[in-house]
Amino acid sequence: MSDQGLWYLENIDVTGIFCPNKLSNTNDHSVETFSKGAHIYLPDDAANKIYFITEGRIKIGSHGSVDKEITKAILSKGEVFGELALIDAESRRDFAVAMEDSKVCVITKEEMKNLMKDHSQLSLFLMKLMGKRALGMEKRLESLVFKDSRSRIIEFLTDLVKQKGQRVGYEMLVRKFITHQEIANITATSRQTVTTVLNELRNKNILTFDRKRLLIRNMDELNKELSIH
């Protein structure tokens, strides 16, 4: 993903395909606005649309037993979600909710299939997207089985920096840092454990953080922490 948050594949601007004419509503594409906390879809809703984020952030998750929430992904501008509709899933198995005021370009499953016929490389893009997410879920499953809570949290931080980080001098900056509870939901740990690990790393001067950003002062030292049990 580029710094602008737009997906590109072999010189094709996917944004221009998903949201042509600067998001006009003159065809089957439409733009919908969701306020913070609003659901785009819920479990058991019909899986008949694919979504492309043009502004804001969207959380994909599911609910386990005893009101336990599992966060599967936090997506931002330029990312696609709801793509499982293309494999003929009849209903949603998870939920999508706006983490802040957001805008998404909405494409019906039928229209997406037509776009894939007109843009052959779009099929490759979607295959890569689904494959990347499947590998990501497999990696998370392995972490749950083989790694302790501390290692899972640090691994999440390193992956977050690789995906969303911006270099600032010798440091790496992640804007719009998520809450400790969201990290706990992603790593299957507790909010208290996340807070403890983050404070420990801050005390070692490896990173600093607040509600708006995460700054990694020393990436090499953060990677070394993965080997500490």
SSE layout and pairing:
Blueprint: E1 8-9, E2 12-13, H1 14-18, H2 20-23, E3 30-34, E4 39-41, E5 49-55, E6 57-63, E7 69-76, E8 80-81, E9 95-98, E10 102-108, H3 109-118, H4 120-146, H5 149-164, E11 166-168, E12 171-175, H6 180-187, H7 191-203, E13 207-209, E14 213-216, H8 219-225
Antiparallel strand pairs: 1-2, 3-10, 4-9, 5-8, 5-10, 6-7, 6-9, 11-12, 12-14, 13-14
Helix pairs in contact: 3-4, 5-6, 5-8, 6-7
Q: How much β-strand is present in the residues?
A: 25-35%
Count of helix runs: 8
Low-confidence stretches: 1-11, 22-26
**Shape by Cα distribution:** globular
Secondary structure: helix percent: 25-40%
**How many strand elements?**
14
Please describe the biggest sheet, giving its number of strands, its sense, and whether it closes into a barrel: 4 strands, antiparallel
Class by alpha and beta content: alpha+beta
Q: Could you report the average pLDDT, rounded to the nearest whole number?
A: 85
Q: Tell me the Rg in angstroms.
A: 19 Å
- Spatial ordering of strands, largest sheet: 3-10-5-8
End-to-end distance: 33 Å
- SSE series: EEHHEEEEEEEEHHHEEHHEEH
What key phrases describe this protein's structure?
globular; four-stranded antiparallel β-sheet; alpha+beta; 14 strands; 229 residues; 27% strand
Q: Summarize this, please?
A:
The chain is of the alpha+beta class.
Q: What does this protein look like?
A:
The protein is built from eight helices and 14 strands. With 229 residues, the chain is α+β, with helices and mostly antiparallel strands. Strands 3-10-5-8 form a four-stranded antiparallel sheet. Helix 3 packs across helix 4 and helix 6 (180-187) crosses helix 7 (191-203). The chain is globular, with a radius of gyration of 19 Å.
